[in-house]
Structure prediction request, 66 residues.
Amino acid sequence: MDWNRVEGNWKQFTGKVKEQWGKLTDDEIDQINGNREQLEGKIQERYGKAKDDVKREVDEWHNRLH
Prediction:
């Protein structure tokens, strides 16, 4: 599945995002609106992780959605 599908169906994935990254608020998840860069940025901000680590985490999460 490509990221466009996640972006296009963001409302359906918000629960899974919340499950994975519980520190993200509902408002932040709404603002992200499927934008991968924004998701990665918010995860970095909330969890204090390095950009490369966050990118890998999002890739792994995305791959599990199949």
